[in-house]
Amino acid sequence: MFEFDVIARSGDARAGVFHTPHGDLLTPVFAPVGTQATVKALTPTHLTELGASLVLANTYHLYLRPGDDLVKEFGGVHEFMRWPGPMLTDSGGFQVFSLSDTRKIDSDGVTFKSHLDGALHRFTPERSMEIQNNLGADIIMAFDECPPPLDRAYNEIALARTHAWAERCRNYHRRDSQALFGIVQGGIFADLRERSARFLMGLDFPGYAIGGLAVGETKAQMHAALEVVNDALPPDKPRYLMGVGTPEDLVNGVMRGVDVFDCVLPTRLARNAAAFTRRGRLNMKNTQYARDHRPVEEGCACYCCANFTRGYIRHLIVAREILASTLLSMHNVHVLLTIMREMRAAIVEGTFERYAQTFLSEWKGTQINSI
User: Fold this and answer.
1) Residues 225 and 89 reside in one and the same domain
2) Is 90 a catalytic residue?
3) Residues 228 and 291 grouped into a single domain
């Protein structure tokens, strides 16, 4: 059911098809994040029209509110949010370690306080699997520990725990209609990353996530870790880089063998008046755009750029109108999905290396004044 067919390669980059119960995913693919069973400011129809094929929902948040049992009662997360395509859920591990101020970790699991009301909760590998089985996404994640990437001593401890938890998740997972991915950890340390990849390969997961990156290390350290993992993981299984989603990171990730990405960034930036372009990021609140009659990005075919000016978008932002978040979210998601489609086509056509070199040479950084 969850076969992965690689149809073309260009260096380490590959174009493939991952088969799921809710449709085929053409890779490389980017998943907009629907943390609480909604991609902020966008409807499922918007996502379909933008060309999204995969959406991520968050296990931790849906467990706390409205509860995984309630989502199951509605037929699972697909029916609950009325998204017809493939879905992915994370394990809840990252949020447990990043959102809870006080947590107690032991070999069996993690006890933590809800960020909503301070109530105590406990996640074990088995509980994470139970929640994700109830949510019913096509792709689910093993429960892992996400340690600080630069602390080798702690990464050694966390890696042993992550591996033991991966085995327990594999043993407890109940639904054949869900693909369970193991998560490679190990911080920035090449030997730990390779050790993690080799161990998880022995459990024969249908796919492998790469966690613990884009959380404080340098770009060079992230790229080096990806190269180690790419060399170690099996070539016939999809690779998912968790929580990474700037345009240049997508290109660099595909160059290093990554097939699946997700990130909150396109919609989060939109809610904070920022727009992606192919050259960098624009702050649409800047006064210079008040009388600018151009679209957010000239040549962009998204609904926002096809119909509205920078001056109008800035007006909405300054007036604190909700429509600003919707239009900029449409634009930002469109930019990332378009880049993914272009990379796939370039891999198939054998021109990916030239595409990547051109794209990265024109990228001006995370913040530019104007284009």
Assistant:
1) yes
2) yes
3) no
